[in-house]
Design a protein that fits this description.
Layout lengths: L4 H11 L1 H12 L2 H18 L7 H22 L15 H5 L16 H6 L5 H11 L5 H8 L3 H14 L1 H6 L5 H20 L2 H6 L1 E10 L11 E2 L1 H14 L4 E7 L2 E7 L10 E8 L5 E7 L16
Parallel strand pairs: 1-6
Antiparallel strand pairs: 1-2, 3-4, 4-5, 5-6
Helix pairs in contact: 2-3, 2-4, 3-4, 4-8, 7-9, 8-9
Length: 310
């Protein structure tokens, strides 16, 4: 039945492309990498001409996972020259709020959130794949073993260790709902008002004492190359930036379920980023737990790398 492959691939492009992109994006933390993985997966299907006697989707899933794991390992093996922040994608509020619900532990919306994607960074590539398949896409242990080309016993071990590593995230998680989105907008607006006014005390009051500041220049642009820890240190960093640069333009938009500020700047010094997207992740008490700034062009929200939905 290999002569039916072009028709099967055409169906996969319609029915499975969104799933493959969503899996690859959550695996790699990059919309650009997800696009590459999906294209390479379909290309390999054309070259390998797998049998269509059984469903094509499991074969495509195995290939996409293998390519995603390779991509993730390359990134993790590269000497750290910057703090990694996942690639941002615009998530229209209407689509976000109408996302299908599942019985999975994390669900489709939460697993696209920046807090979850950042939490996944503590996992090995195999653990990451196991959590995504089991706890987001609701695969059985047998289906995960087939996708990872391993045993069910190993899947159970990978899953257990991954969930143990994610315990800190689980203890402080917030539902990815309209309340979280509104808190992100309020805190972001208030924080930047305080920064632009030079009011350090007001800015510090919006942040958790143990807040983390993440700034990803992708090795191309000037950014903090370490995680900033503590409210005063984070505020000092952004106050310093405000004295050096004033936005030419700025707009609010929703990325990964939270509001962000997308600002453009005049480039006056070498390695200054012309565009910076900044957002905050609120905790359950309504304070900023994480503030992130994305400067890397490969991980900025772009229409050419549009989020295809869940």
């Amino acid at each position: 039945m290999t002569h039916d492959l072009p028709k099967a691939l055409a169906h996969a492009a319609d029915a499975d492309r969104r799933f493959l992109w969503g899996l690859s994006y959550r695996m790699t933390g990059s919309a650009a990498d997800a696009e590459d993985v999906v294209q390479d997966t379909l290309l390999r299907a054309l070259e390998a001409r797998p049998s269509t006697d059984e469903a094509l989707r499991p074969w495509l899933t195995r290939v996409a996972l293998r390519l995603s794991v390779d991509c993730l390992r390359r990134r993790q093996a590269t000497p750290a020259k910057y703090v990694f922040v996942p690639g941002l994608v615009e998530t229209p509020e209407a689509d976000w709020d109408s996302a299908p619900s599942t019985a999975a532990a994390y669900g489709l919306r939460e697993s696209v959130g920046l807090a979850f994607l950042l939490a996944l960074e503590v996992l090995s590539p195999q653990q990451r794949a196991t959590v995504l398949l089991r706890d987001v896409f609701d695969f059985s242990a047998k289906e995960v073993a087939l996708a990872l080309e391993t045993t069910e016993a190993n899947v159970r071990q990978l899953h257990h260790r991954a969930r143990e590593a994610l315990r800190p995230y689980d203890e402080g998680r917030r539902p990815p709902d309209a309340a979280l989105r509104e808190d992100s907008r309020r805190l972001l607006a208030d924080l930047f008002d305080a920064i632009m006014q030079g009011d350090a005390a007001k800015a510090v009051a919006l942040l958790r004492a143990d807040v983390k500041g993440l700034s990803d220049g992708g090795g191309e642009y000037l950014a903090a190359n370490v995680v900033l820890a503590g409210a005063q240190r984070v505020v000092d960093f952004y106050l310093r930036l405000a004295t050096l640069r004033t936005p030419l333009s700025a707009r609010f938009l929703v990325c990964n379920g939270v509001w962000v500020l997308d600002a453009t700047y005049e480039v006056l010094r070498p390695k200054e980023a012309p565009r910076v997207v900044t957002g905050v992740l609120p905790d359950a008490a309504g304070q900023v737990a994480v503030i992130f700034s994305q400067l890397s062009p490969a991980r900025l929200p772009e229409s050419s790398r549009a989020w295809p939905g869940f």
